[in-house]
Amino acid sequence: MIFVKADELKIGMRIAKPIYNKSGVMLYERDSKLTAQGIVSIQNFGLIGVYVLEAAEPLPPMSEEDIEFERFQAMAVFSIKDILDAVGRHKEPEQLYQFANQIIKKYGTLHHKINFIQNLRSAEDYVYKHSLNTAILCALISKRMNLEFKRQLDIVVAAILHDIGTLLIPVELRKKPVLARNEEEQKKINTYYMAAYQMFARDGSLDAGVKQILSLILQKVYHVGGKSEGLVDQQEPEVEILRTAAIFDQLTAMNYQEEPASDVAALRFLLNEENGYMPETVDALIQSINILEPGVCVELTNGERGLVVHAGAVNVLEPFVLLFRDNQIYNLGDEEIAGQMQIKDIMKTMDNRHVMDPELLAQYAGEVVHIGERREKKNY
After folding, report:
1. Model confidence over 213-240: pLDDT tens digits?
2. pLDDT averaged over every residue in the chain
3. Are 180 and 147 in contact (CB under 8 A)?
4. Which residues of 273-307 are buried (b: 16+ CB within 10 A; e: fewer)?
């Protein structure tokens, strides 16, 4: 499965993930071959691109839960857009708490892991999709950490609202890569986050718990605002859950600026003590979503490639792997094996064929000789 930008799609490519409209109706199902009309439709939807299957790649399996997850994402992003746009216009979002309850009902009550399927984002819809996925992750993590319903609701509502400052930034400035922004532009961006801080502080419709979480998040992530009264410990679980969920989604999402990190790379970032994420929260994330489950193809540090056949019992990064080279299974949780090979990353493509440049190939190819003709010898 590979990502192809909308303007690089070609007739005959097979769609790897279904495409839905705002009502959750499937417009294009998986394994559909793109037509000229289909390509135009995808471009008109405003999608930055789609995932397509490689030429020899079979259609990967998807459970009913996976299909429903993608359908919910497609529908819910329109609901969250209405909510955030209302907040941006300083109007009370009527559906905010109802929508948060819907997320908790679907994902904040589960007792099993889910496949957290990422969605594609443009500059225009990035904030809506980021806020939605962050809220879903917060519901999952808070359930694993056994937070009571009131605290769970506060954190999901805060997750929906936490990135409103980015939404206030003009789209053209939002599109500009961070390293390309000058000092004046960065100062301008900071004013929008300060505006969001002040907006939440004055909002009388928000619960006090939600306002406290948002206040601390804006301080820790965007470095705006003042001291929050009543909250001395900034390592409060709600804040850390939201911070962990937000960065995991940000790292793994396909957006308009950069290629996404794999779940493995994002997890390593969170597990690195220098980055300051609470181990308990990261562990709750690991217990909420499938990472390196059976069927995932991986690259190893010794240059080998293999297939995960059993998840790691203690450490999610130490599964049992079937090597393609010798068809043997290796337990990466074994100290001796771990000294020889470890998980480097998830394989980005299953297609090992080399792409040949026709023009370069022509320089080394001989002349076409028809049957019965005599080929003259050339000196090279």
Report:
1. 999 999 888 888 765 444 444 448 999 9
2. 85
3. no
4. eeeebbeebbbbbbebbbbbeeebbbbbeeebbbb
- Name residue 219's amino acid: Q
- Altogether, the residues listed in the chain come to a count of 380
Rg over CA atoms, the chain: 24
pLDDT at 373 (0 to 100): 55
- Residue 32's beta-bridge partner residues? none
Instruction: Residue 9: name the closest of 23, 20, 19, 21 by CA.
Output: 19
Tell me how far apart the alpha carbons of residues 217 and 289 are, in angstroms, rounded to a whole number.
23
pLDDT at 49: 77
Dihedral (CA of 84, 85, 88, 93) sign: negative
Q: Which of 285, 234, 229, 241 lies closest to 153 in space, CA to CA? A: 241
pLDDT at 368: 53
Helix axes 126-144, 64-88, angle to 10 degrees: 120
Beta-carbon contacts of residue 312 (< 8 Å; ≥ 6 apart): 292, 318, 319, 320, 332, 333
109: DSSP letter: S
Residue 337 — very low, low, confident or very high, per pLDDT cuts 50/70/90?
very high
Closest CA to 247 of 268, 219, 216, 225: 268
- Say if residue 63's pLDDT is above 90: no
Angle, helix 279-286 to helix 263-271, in steps of 10 degrees: 160
Q: Give me the amino acid identity at 354.
A: H
